[in-house]
Design brief:
The chain is mainly beta. It contains one helix and eight strands.
Amino acid sequence: MSDDVRNVETALSTISEHWQPHRLTSVNDYDVKVVKLQGEFVWHTHPDTDELFMVIRGELTIQLRDRDVVLGPNDIFVVPKGVEHCPKAAEEVHAILFEPKGTVNTGDAGGDMTAQLREFDEDGPEMP
């Protein structure tokens, strides 16, 4: 990935499917991903890494086994590694994720909602 300027809103405008993160850029060994979310995801954990959520637009609830965390625009929450969680959004949410390269969106759960990470390319169509 080049070191060109990336625009979050432009990247989000290219996403048509929910729960399908697109790599916007990378920082050292971490990916910065943009994603649109709607509905309920799957309960899962990331045994070896924390996961950062930053909401750009909408309201996202991160369900934890002992509480719910509600995020609005410009809110950030870090799910600690090994903590079971399930994101859900009644209406469409635009968000940024920050996590180590190779992190699978469904963590240890796998299944039909596991995404193939795509890269955002401002000069052309999204790349698988």
